[in-house]
Specification:
337 residues; Rossmann fold; seven-stranded parallel sheet; 11 helices; 14 strands; 41% helix; 18% strand; globular; binds nicotinamide-adenine-dinucleotide; binds UDP-4-deoxy-4-formamido-beta-L-arabinopyranose
Length: 337
């Protein structure tokens, strides 16, 4: 089938495009390249020996979307496009609501007009908010995300539920990701953040490759086994394969379906640093700093529902996540530049 992938040049998008091409699907990518490089998709084409259609443009551009749907027989949309930096969302909330909420609204309007009613949406564990016991399962009520980025994800989830309730033609999947890390095993595509990385793994990798001096660990006094924050890191290729399973599930289901994409296991910051040092053979100097505002001590998924209903399970180990991150970073010290 032909799948439109918004944000397909980005980190998770490019790995998912690769998985879809390898599974034999036709892919149209729409991306405005605000946080990505066209080079990621050239490499995906080389790795898969397949071609894709790339449209440089914005999900908020209704005219462009109408044209895209009239030119391509799209059966389903995987919607990654959006802004994702938590701190920036506090500084620039209007940009986040504009891209993430208004952008999704325009996309859905164009899909409705074109009669395309199958959608997979990139949601986040952040919609659970704080205060639930771990692990987080899909039956829990959503909470109160602590920043505009998280709220934009929650608003979109609610918008999509209302849409599916209004018309049984819609079939929508909300995938709640935990902490995506790693890279394709080729070392050719991976995460390429602009500026100073916000997330742990890209920062660790840049320290190891010599682009940054020292990792700041945000807090060593959490009530976790070693005092540092615990998260559910999931290999980006496991995540990509989860999207393939969700795509197949859409064909058989109506309404809204929610699946966590995580491993079900938590790892602390110190465990990640140690695993990275082992995988890379590089030292990762660090210093302990105060806690980052709004960070939780621990967060990990109950990943049973996706296994039961999708037949999907994340199987790549923490060691593999680290080795693949290092291969990507070592081969491409400056990312795609
Ligand atoms: P990313 O920034 O690498 O990818 C997002 C892509 O969307 C980029 O290629 C960017 O250029 C594009 N884009 C942004 N605004 C656009 C617009 N208005 N029109 C067209 N293209 C636009 O981020 P990612 O890590 O690959 O995340 C993909 C999705 O998954 C995002 O929606 C993100 O919020 C969500 N998510 C990410 C994480 C994570 O930790 N990486 C966790 C949970 C959810
Ligand atoms: C992981 C752990 C930090 C950087 C964020 C978003 C979330 C989701 C994924 C999209 C924490 C610690 C980090 C550093 C550190 N995104 N850390 N030094 O905070 O779990 O989630 O990204 O939906 O919404 O909030 O991920 O990678 O930033 O942090 O010590 O330089 O690493 O305190 O314990 P987080 P992260």
């Amino acid at each position: 089938m032909t799948v439109l992938i918004t944000g397909g040049a980005g980190y998770i998008g490019s790995h998912t495009v690769l998985a879809l091409l390898e599974a034999g699907h036709e892919v149209v990518v729409l991306d405005n390249l605000v946080n990505a490089s066209r080079e990621s998709l050239r490499r995906v084409e080389r790795l898969t020996e397949r071609t894709l259609i790339f449209v440089e443009g914005d999900i908020r551009d209704r005219t462009l979307l109408d044209q895209l749907f009239s030119e391509h027989a799209v059966s389903a949309v995987i919607h990654f496009a959006g802004l994702k930096a938590v701190g920036e969302s506090v500084q620039q909330p209007l940009s986040y609501y504009e891209n993430n909420v208004a952008g999704t609204l325009v996309l859905c309007q164009a899909m409705q007009a074109a009669g395309v009613t199958r959608l997979v949406f990139s949601s986040s564990a952040t919609v659970y908010g704080d205060g639930h016991p771990m692990p987080l399962h899909e039956g829990l009520p959503t909470g109160e995300p602590t920043n505009p980025y998280g709220r934009s994800k929650l608003i979109v989830e609610e918008l999509l539920r209302d849409l599916a309730d209004s018309d049984s033609a819609w079939s929508i999947v909300l995938l709640r990701y935990f902490n995506p890390v790693g890279a394709h095993a080729s070392g050719q595509i991976g995460e390429d953040p602009r500026g100073i990385p916000n997330n742990l793994l890209p920062y660790v990798a840049q320290v190891a490759v010599g682009r940054r001096d020292c990792l700041a660990i945000f807090g060593s006094d959490y009530s976790t086994h070693d005092g540092t924050g615990v998260r559910d890191y999931i290999h980006v290729m496991d995540l990509a394969e989860g999207h393939l399973c969700a795509l197949h599930a859409l064909a058989e289901r109506q309404g809204v379906h929610i699946w966590n994409l995580g491993t079900g296991q938590g790892h602390s910051v110190l465990e990640v640093v140690k695993a990275f040092e082992q995988a890379s053979g590089q030292a990762v100097p660090y210093r302990i700093e105060p806690r980052r505002p709004d960070d939780v001590a621990a967060c990990w998924a109950d990943a049973c529902l996706a296994e039961r209903e999708l037949g999907w399970k994340a199987w790549r180990s923490l060691a593999e996540m680290m080795a693949d991150t290092w291969r990507w970073q070592h081969n491409n010290p400056d990312g795609y530049r």
